[in-house]
Amino acid sequence: MSATSPPPPSEVNEASPLLAKTTEPNVRHVLLGLILVATSSLAFSTMSLFVKLVGFNFPPMEIVFIRSILQFGLAIISCWYMGVFPWGEPSLRKGLVVRGFAGSVGLALFYYSLTKLPLSDATVLFFVSPIFTAILARLFLKESYSLFDQAASVVSFTGVIFVAQPEFLFGARKSNPSDIDSTSRIIACVACVCGSVASSIAFVTIRQLGLGVHYMVHVVYFGGISSIFSLIVSLIFEPVKIPSTLYDWVGLSVISVSAFVGQGLLNYGLQLAPSGPATLMRNFDIVFAFIFGITIFKEIPAMNSLLGTGLILCSTIGMGIKKWAGRR
């Protein structure tokens, strides 16, 4: 039997796998794994699409709550079906709570940015999480953070500036039906990047907890704590709106189910395929985000956004290829 190991934290984000995977898969398994990972990108992109669609009718935290409570229920049922104790070992529960809370904050900030920014911009900004995860892994797990990684970080953060397009650097933006004012855009971009940091904290915590925690236990804590966190924030800061139409219920249900299905496909795909190529396949999220944004929301990306996207993609792909080559 081949050895197993969890994905390194520099290769994960909110949509990343929580299972160990084989290190010596055969060619058919690799191909199937890559197909599953690419399909999971479609599932997560569908989730983001419907967050933006229903975000016109519901506050972001209410969307987080409905997604999280359904995810929590599905995770509990899955634990029962698989014979897994849903609360984990007592000695690991403090770490699981930290993971759940950090993931909740990351998810909430990402959903907020999805309701304010073009779909492609929000997705690209959230995908800088591998950079933050590499930095945090160096600080807390003493993992390597090479000169190449540092250069990739600088390139990625430069890309963030081009996507955010602060007015004091780029001047006033041309009017676009999907645009918000410059100040609101900067706030949404900062929120999205902060969500990426929170997501990175969650997955560094997962790495610290190690293989002693079943991946579905992580989903239980993530869903449960997100439900509590989003409910409290909604009751304090946002007016609660009850879904009243079939469109509302379908949209909110698709968000929950597509997120859960995407996580399952990703977990299984990363068991079969090496983390390097699979990490590269995760960038299909950005491709789907551009397709959905242009075709459904008529969001034509500005040249600066395209340049920033290219810089972020180059840095994350470069880090993925470097880590893959280093393991061969």
Automatic annotation (TrEMBL):
Q: Report the protein name in the record.
A: EamA domain-containing protein
Enumerate the transmembrane spans: 30-51, 63-84, 96-114, 120-140, 147-165, 185-206, 218-237, 249-268, 280-297
Subcellular location per UniProt equals: Membrane
Q: Which UniProt keywords apply?
A: Membrane, Transmembrane, Transmembrane helix
Domain EamA: where? 32-163, 188-319
Q: Which Pfam families match?
A: EamA
Q: What topology does the record note for this protein and the membrane?
A: Multi-pass membrane protein
Which residues constitute the signal peptide according to the record? none
- InterPro entries named among the record's database cross-references: EamA_dom (IPR000620), EmrE-like (IPR037185)
- GO cellular component labels: membrane
Report whether Membrane shows up as a keyword of the record. Answer: yes
